[in-house]
Design goal:
Elements: H1 9-12, E1 21-25, H2 29-41, E2 45-49, H3 60-65, E3 73-76, E4 85-88, H4 90-101, H5 109-136, H6 147-166, H7 179-194, H8 209-217, H9 220-225
Parallel strand pairs: 1-2
Antiparallel strand pairs: 1-3, 3-4
Helix pairs in contact: 2-4, 2-7, 5-6, 5-7, 7-8
Length: about 230
């Protein structure tokens, strides 16, 4: 049976608590999903900073468990059957952690409601908001052709309206607080606070989304998760 020490990246990022879930991440919207989930679920974890600024995501050891060279990734030393389990892709990790802890992902029909909103984030909110950020703040802002930025701006605005409608009369998108909220809300924070794109996506005209984000950010576990892993 493989052991935690068999993973090459443990030489670069040594476990501090070998029995805990090892989180390899960086405080991006996708990264903080997992640290927030771990905090909400009360699962023991070691958070290791994989700096996407320094190119740590291309470390051969990291690529062994995350071949798409994207954070976050985890190794659970106590995976199914007691063997270590390595996972990449934030959506898959959220499902795994929720099932491991038996919380934030309900049974029955409600499970699929949560999963549909998780997929809404994975397939829509994340890619579209991220592209808008590129064209609004980062390298793409130097492109003179307005069409790429407008494409993503319009789609981000549309997605916000979809979410706003879903939140009417509800505190959380799928009913009870769940991994769907943990997936969606960090991207809302990123759009508003890091991309500074609220004013171009109709944020102030939304009836429910701003309060939803404020509710999410007020949670103590969210506040703890947002600063993991430490980057200095």
């Amino acid at each position: 049976m493989p052991e935690l020490d068999d993973f090459a990246l443990t030489r670069r990022w040594p476990p501090r608590t070998p029995g805990a879930i090892q989180l390899y991440s960086f405080p991006t919207p996708n990264g903080v999903k997992i640290s927030i989930a771990l905090e909400e679920l009360g699962l023991a974890y070691d958070a290791h900073a994989v700096s996407i600024v320094k190119g740590d995501q291309f470390d051969p050891g990291f690529l062994d468990i995350a071949p798409n060279n994207k954070i976050p990734a985890i190794i659970d030393p106590q995976g199914p059957g007691g063997a270590p389990l390595a996972l990449f892709e934030s959506g898959a990790i959220l499902v795994y952690l929720a099932e491991k802890a038996g919380r934030l992902l309900p049974e029955g029909a409600a499970r699929y409601t949560v999963l549909q909103w998780l997929m809404f984030q994975m397939g829509g909110v994340g890619p579209m908001f991220g592209q808008l950020g590129f064209f609004h703040v980062y390298g793409g802002k130097e492109i003179e052709d307005p069409r790429p930025k407008e494409r993503y701006r319009a789609e981000a605005e549309r997605l916000l309206k979809v979410l706003d409608g879903a939140l009417a009369g509800k505190d959380w998108v799928a009913g009870d607080y769940s991994i769907a909220d943990i997936a969606i809300a960090p991207w809302l924070r990123g759009l508003r606070d890091f991309y500074k794109a609220a004013d171009i996506t109709g944020w102030d005209r939304l009836a429910n989304v701003p309060a939803y984000l404020d509710r999410f950010l007020a949670r103590p576990a969210v506040q703890r998760g947002l600063v993991q892993p430490p980057t200095e």
